Amino acid sequence: MARSLARLVKGFQSITALPAVAAPACASLRSASLRTMAVPLPFSSKPRDFSLPNVSWGPEMLRLYEFYNNLCERETEGAEKRRGPWQRLPSYNRSLKYATGGVYLSKIIQSKARLFTRNMRNPGAAFEYVLFVNKEEQRCVCILQAGHLLEGPPGHVHGGAIATMIDTVTGTHASQLCEPVMTANLNINYRSPIPLGSTVLIESTLDRKEGKKTYISCKVTSTDGSKLHTEATALFVSISISHLLLGG
Amino acid sequence: MARSLARLVKGFQSITALPAVAAPACASLRSASLRTMAVPLPFSSKPRDFSLPNVSWGPEMLRLYEFYNNLCERETEGAEKRRGPWQRLPSYNRSLKYATGGVYLSKIIQSKARLFTRNMRNPGAAFEYVLFVNKEEQRCVCILQAGHLLEGPPGHVHGGAIATMIDTVTGTHASQLCEPVMTANLNINYRSPIPLGSTVLIESTLDRKEGKKTYISCKVTSTDGSKLHTEATALFVSISISHLLLGG
């Protein structure tokens, strides 16, 4: 099974890489209806991008999205718009869909499988998030709105849901630097619980790269940065796609 | 909001404790239809127990469930059945439901909220698991069947889903020793990816207790123990319920 998968994806440049959205796309986003942006195109070979705003996004989530989205481009002296320091990363409901032809392949390879963080049809019920990367500063920022299906202790987000987002953000960051990667270690310190429904910031920074190893730090804070919810370090190891598909 | 929650649950003995199922309940389980056991009773004040077998459970999941369930009782010389060294722990879709009157309270306090590991209606789609605890040996065992909605890398379980189960198993174990607790640290080493659809064992053992701190080790292996998927340590801190409800 795994070997046939390996044959199927042979020739793919990368499965885990998240292609960045260029500045012109960021610009068109702001002039379009938010509702329209989140609707998948019928019969399209382009997968639905879950990182675009939908009706469940609250004011804080939208405000931060607009803030970072504005940093995706900068105006030059001639009022010409050019690529900015930040880039929004699209988000699909299977990692397979990042690969060329992945939309079609995902219909024949374990077609029911869904990315753990994008497995809900109901907007706002679980993870609503968008990632922005700044390659110059080696930083990544995620805006997360935690839905009611992520409960752990009464009224608060499950420690595993926080770990899931930390793995997602740091893993995406690492794959931007040296794709593809697998998580080797997560070391998470929980400082203060996150109430359900909150919008929080998850920021990751590159610590160092040593050969195939990428070390990343991460913290989860309130959106104004005044409250530290969680701190973590993560280690990722570069792998080949065949290694992944054959089960490591 | 949090303060009114605190008033509502004032007088609860524990919210995070998972009451163990006594041996007679284990005995009746085996004589009943597996399908019948997982169906919630209409108009019942008893919450549905998600740790009972359902139609999605595969042969390996059922085999291991039966194995540990048989250890929930032992026969004496007079063929009398008595409580065994292991106990099956019930599992509800909100931690609030472990408290006395929690079923009713969960209808008025954030009624849409669901435990992260039990937030799916479709059996077998995400986490199917059951926990058994051995208080004499200070051990806890969880049998997990990983559904198709837990995908991370193509065809494999998301690192965050594994972290979620490690947090759940070690946290349940810690709450059996000193309730209630909050996760303070999780340190997870990912050794080998877990294919989607697999049944695996998650075993936790008590390392030590130091005042309010409980240190636990955990490993995730194939069901025959031959393959190590993940290793972790966890630290839990005992807290008061008001501390939890007021946001720590």
TrEMBL record, chains A, B:
Entries under CDD domains matching the protein: PaaI_thioesterase (cd03443)
**Pfam families listed in its UniProt record:** 4HBT
User: What does the record give as EC number?
Assistant: 3.1.2.2
**Signal sequence: where?**
none
Intracellular or extracellular location(s)? Cell projection, Ruffle membrane; Cytoplasm; Mitochondrion inner membrane; Mitochondrion intermembrane space
Its GO CC terms are: mitochondrial inner membrane; mitochondrial intermembrane space; ruffle membrane
Which reaction does this enzyme catalyse, per its entry?
Answer: hexadecanoyl-CoA + H2O = hexadecanoate + CoA + H(+); (9Z)-octadecenoyl-CoA + H2O = (9Z)-octadecenoate + CoA + H(+); decanoyl-CoA + H2O = decanoate + CoA + H(+); (5Z,8Z,11Z,14Z)-eicosatetraenoyl-CoA + H2O = (5Z,8Z,11Z,14Z)-eicosatetraenoate + CoA + H(+)
Keyword Ribosomal protein attributed = no
Q: What is its main location?
A: membrane
How does the protein associate with the membrane? Answer: Peripheral membrane protein
Recorded hits in InterPro entries, A to Z, give: HotDog_dom_sf (IPR029069), THEM4/THEM5_acyl-CoA_thioest (IPR052365), Thioestr_dom (IPR006683)
Q: Does the keyword Nucleotidyltransferase apply?
A: no
| Assigned keywords, A-Z | Apoptosis, Cell membrane, Cell projection, Cytoplasm, Fatty acid metabolism, Hydrolase, Lipid metabolism, Membrane, Mitochondrion, Mitochondrion inner membrane, Transit peptide
GO MF assignments: hydrolase activity
The enzyme's main class, written as a single word, is hydrolase
Domain (Thioesterase): residue spans on this chain? 155-226
The UniProt entry's GO biological process terms, in alphabetical order, are: apoptotic process; fatty acid metabolic process
Family to which the UniProt record says this protein belongs: Belongs to the THEM4/THEM5 thioesterase family.
Q: What is this protein called?
A: Acyl-coenzyme A thioesterase THEM4
Where does this protein come from, organism-wise?
Betta splendens
Q: Give the gene that encodes this protein.
A: them4
